Amino acid sequence: MQTIQVLGRTFDIFIQEDKILSMVKTLAESINQDYAGKPVVFVAVLNGSFMLASDLMKQINLACRIEFIKTSSYAGTQSTGSIKELIGLKGDITGHHVVIIEDIIDTGLTIDYIINLLQEKNPESIEVCSLLLKPEALQVDLKPKYIGFEVENKFLLGYGLDYDGFGRNLKHIYVEKS
Ligand code: IMP
Ligand code: MG
Fold first, then answer.
1. Contact in structure between 67 and 91 (CB atoms under 8 Å)
2. Among 109, 118, 124, 175, which is least packed, fewest CB within 10 Å?
3. Which DSSP helix (H) or strand (E) runs through 45?
4. Per residue in 62-78, pLDDT tens?
5. For 45-59, 63-77, 96-110, 115-129, which range has the lowest pLDDT when averaged over its residues?
6. What angle do CA 8, 84, 121 make, to 5 degrees?
7. What integer pLDDT is reported at residue 88 of this predicted model?
8. Whose CA is nearest to atom 10 of ligand 1?
9. Which atom of ligand 1 approaches the CA of 105 most closely?
10. What are the chain's domains?
11. What residues flank ion ligand 2 with Cβ within 5 A?
């Protein structure tokens, strides 16, 4: 399916599943190398990162834990800028290396908020792994270490990314038709 309709909007295919999965493998290989022998806690940001977290973790060969946190900053196709923590971190991260797993960094406000929150818990280090980054939309000073694809400032859908709750199940990533 090259073009799809979701809630009356039209989306074209943008990144195919095989390209996504090979990028996920590349990201995992970098993380495996960088953290060999170190205690790592992955922190996946729900809901959007659920597919990435699953595919990424299957390629991670470190002794590690994964935690899930939930925030909400999006309504429709535009970032609202307001962020609320919904589900917090349960396990201890003190002295651990933390890798945050995100689907996409848009304004960067969500990830900035999460980094600040995690920093209070005294981890050894914090890095970010995001499949997608929109450099033009970034509003905070942030240099994520593990980025899959840098993309234009357009609304994307699929592979965990939603439009008002729909489209998360799509295996390819789609872009809204302009
Ligand atoms: P930020 O706080 O503006 O960086 O937004 C981050 C969150 O907004 C991401 O974790 C996504 O859940 C959501 N988001 C940002 N851009 C898109 C998009 O193009 N499509 C779907 N969701 C998006
Ligand atoms: Mg998200």
1. yes
2. 124
3. strand 40-46
4. 999 999 998 755 555 56
5. 63-77
6. 135
7. 75
8. 104
9. 4
10. 21-168 (3.40.50.2020)
11. 48, 103
